[in-house]
Amino acid sequence: DAGVIQSPRHEVTEMGQEVTLRCKPISGHDYLFWYRQTMMRGLELLIYFNNNVPIDDSGMPEDRFSAKMPNASFSTLKIQPSEPRDSAVYFCASSRGGRGLGYEQYFGPGTRLTVT
Amino acid sequence: EDQVTQSPEALRLQEGESSSLNCSYTVSGLRGLFWYRQDPGKGPEFLFTLYSAGEEKEKERLKATLTKKESFLHITAPKPEDSATYLCAVHGSSNTGKLIFGQGTTLQVKP
């Protein structure tokens, strides 16, 4: 089975540009998570969805960040405008939750974003 | 508020030198404790889920154990390929679907 798929794997952009990160979760998973990882702050949860509906976006740093999940097999994280402090590795993860299920999250390979 | 603290931050071992990583947690209604392994440049890889105190799980040289306040990841006779960052996370009853991650322990095993 294919795991979580993220694209692009690397993104280099200039300050002020719009950046869109993409994620395809594991088929059958009903939870999708977006994380950001830096050396200083570790792994931070930005937002998560359940059945395509955003449940908790309290980790989204500011209004420049937005996320959507138009269907069960696709999600985007957009940064507009981007700033150098947004440079990080962004991970998408998915899980299957519910009674008797473990909620184990499976992570994608990440997108390394560099904003110059 | 659910919280996870891992120690030590970094650990250096000689090949074959067994040790343990600690994960202390506070959570309202533990629904699961998770261990992940992360290699440089890759996403975290799921290792184990533990659900209740006294539970143990093993995979090759790794054994995870759980008490009411902490979990240990025991590494027996480690090899250089065990070098990675090990992350612990909890799922509490107040956070449906959401995991709270610790900062991780970076393990280096020297040949």
Explain this structure:
In chain A, 0% of the residues lie in helices and 53% in strands. Chain A has no helices and eleven strands. Chain A has strands spanning 5-7, 10-13, 19-24, 31-38, 42-50, 53-56, 65-71, 74-79, 88-95, 106-107, 111-115. In chain A, the strands form two sheets. In chain A, strands 2, 4, 5, 6, 9, 10 and 11 form a seven-stranded mixed β-sheet that branches. The mean pLDDT of chain A is 93. By secondary structure, chain B is mainly beta. Chain B has no helices and eleven strands. Chain A binds chain B through residues 4, 31, 33, 42-43, 45, 48, 50, 55-56, 91, 93, 95, 97, 102-110, and chain B through 31-32, 34, 36, 41-46, 49, 87, 91, 96-99, 101, 103-104.
Number of strands of chain A: 11
Low-pLDDT ranges of chain A = none
Overall body shape of chain B: globular
Number of DSSP strand runs of chain B: 11
Average of pLDDT of chain A: 93
Count of alpha/pi helices of chain B: 0
What is the straight-line distance between the termini of chain B?
A: 41 Å
Our Rg estimate of chain B from Cα atoms comes to 13 Å
Portion of residues in helices of chain A?
under 10%
- Class from secondary-structure proportions of chain B: mainly beta
The helix count of chain A comes to: 0
The run of helices and strands of chain B is EEEEEEEEEEE
Elements of chain A, N to C (H/E): EEEEEEEEEEE
Largest interface: A-B, 23 and 20 residues
Shape of chain A: globular
Assembly context of the chains:
heterodimer
Approximately how much beta-strand content do the residues of chain A carry? over 45%
**Largest sheet, strands/sense/barrel of chain A:** 7 strands, mixed
